[in-house]
Amino acid sequence: MPVQSHDGGLTLTLGKSSARILFYGATVTSWKSSDASHPDESIERLFVSTKAALDGSKPIRGGIPVVFPCFGAPSHPEHSALSQHGFARNSVWKWDGETVLDNENGVSVRLTLEPTPEITAKYKKPFHLAYVVTLAKNQLSTDLHVKNTSTDSDIEFQALFHNYIHAPAHEVSITPLKGLKYLDKVDTSSDGLKTEERDAVDVRTSTDSVYENAPGSYEVKWPGGGIGIKTKNLKDVVVWNPQAEAGKKIGDMEDGGWERYVCVEPGYVRGFEKVEPGKSWIGHQTLSLL
Ligand code: TA6
Fold it and tell me: What keywords are annotated for this sequence in UniProt (predicted)?
């Protein structure tokens, strides 16, 4: 079966590749695929902390949490009652039992989220979210559809795919970010606004950088591996790894977990995307093995 529903989520299978998506947060918690150097083995491409809560009590520490409608602490008046990164990553999404696509090229499912009493208590805007996850050979794609279901007012939001890429953090290099303006959230000695001067960005020291108006296509490489990211409608990208000092303070981070991932997160997070009544917006990414 290409799509199986069990234990609060879905497992997609295509040949030797698989992906796991939880209804909680629509969080992709696993993407496995083989590659040329491991043709008979499925390798896990995402990092999930062994201390991540998987019982719906808090957002998942790893995989691909969906950030919506605010990134970080809320900075828009309509988001003021929300917690960091919004409600999409800790709400339970629905699946209608259908497989959107099922052929030799890919398997695809769609989860949806509409206002619930818990959401409406903190966020008054009407919306319909759909999240489409597609597993293809050596690729995983995610599409977030945001529909403004209001008849008379705009919605303004931020959205981001918080990808925890399984990688040796001390050896990764991320390109091409040179020349971009970014907010360095680790540097509290100044306003943090900088221009990237490095040909390739690393995370050997604690890194929390929000690049704006980025090219939308990135390579995350390390000796013996790499992931490419291609996006649409996501003008910014965040690079995050706390390293040991800050990482040890994260309650649900496994010991040394920061050595085993880098977050490279395409999003619309500097300023707000605006969608008119009845209109929709789609943010897209494809992760590919390099
Ligand atoms: O995307 C980077 C970031 O916003 C960091 O500032 C960092 O704290 C991280 O996300 C994790 O946030 P979380 O709410 O999941 O602990």
Answer: Isomerase
